[in-house]
Design brief:
The protein has 12 helices and no strands. The mean pLDDT is 92.
């Protein structure tokens, strides 16, 4: 039996009368956290560069998709076959340069045609379809990528850098005025501008920040270990200068 169909069958058994009580109790709502968690696990495995780990986490994510489809099937709404059929139909429809007679010159033209096709499908805005629940940095990038497809973008990274400088100045002015709402708004503008720069440089801001956080955690763990081995005084009794000196040593070591 095909492994994918075997997975569907296993899920049907788990949800059946003689299956697993926990699996039978689950709903779309209760499974939401697992869907998000498994997605991040896939990203972590991808960063690790270990294919076995990556393969395993992709399987866990696939399980969530099968799980949701099985619940929908039991309620007579749609099946996993419908899910697969829907995405196949969409891929064919949105790739007329592959499955039809349309000719394109490069990937940018492909994306422009993609937006035109979505408009013909009833989308009212080029920004329709950007998920509300995306992490903010990732959502900012998706929004910027969408409007770029219709020509609303800087000609080069220089424009994005100039915008960042402008937003930094506006933040300083907002801080001077002392109004939290204004400071929050200008700070958000800075983050949005930074995402713009990362996009021009071919860097994923979300991924870049995640790696920096991991680096910070690793370095701080090293500081904690060194202080523990020194045994003179606990971490919280060290001065900022002492901790900063340790940080620089770890950073350069």
């Amino acid at each position: 039996m095909n492994a994918l169909y075997k997975l569907v069958e296993v899920m049907q058994l788990l949800r059946g009368e003689k299956g697993c009580p926990w699996d039978r109790e689950q709903t779309h709502e209760t499974l939401k956290p697992y869907l998000v968690e498994e997605t991040y696990e896939v990203l972590h495995a991808l960063d690790s560069g270990e294919d076995e780990h990556f393969k395993e986490e992709l399987g866990d994510l696939l399980l969530q998709i099968i799980f949701h489809a099985q619940i929908a099937s039991e309620e007579g709404r749609f099946t996993i076959e419908d899910v697969a059929g829907s995405i196949v139909e969409k891929l064919v429809r949105r790739h007329p340069h592959v499955f039809g007679d349309t000719e394109v010159n490069g990937s940018q033209e492909v994306l422009q045609n993609w937006e035109k096709i979505k408009k013909s499908e009833g989308k009212k805005s080029v920004l329709d379809g950007v998920p509300d629940h995306l992490p903010a940095l990732l959502k900012a990038r998706r929004v910027q990528e969408k409007v770029k497809r219709v020509g609303f973008d800087w000609n080069s990274v220089d424009g994005a850098f100039e915008k960042l400088c402008e937003e930094l100045q506006e933040l300083k002015e907002a801080v001077a005025k002392g109004k939290k709402e204004g400071v929050e708004e200008e700070f958000g503008d800075i983050l949005f501008s930074i995402v713009n720069i990362s996009r021009f440089l071919g860097i994923d801001a979300e991924d870049s920040l995640r790696k920096t956080i991991r680096k910070f955690i690793n370095r701080f763990h090293t500081i904690e270990e060194r202080i523990g081995k020194m045994g003179k005084k606990p971490l919280e009794e060290h001065t900022l200068d002492e901790l900063d000196e340790l940080w620089e040593d770890v950073k350069n070591g």
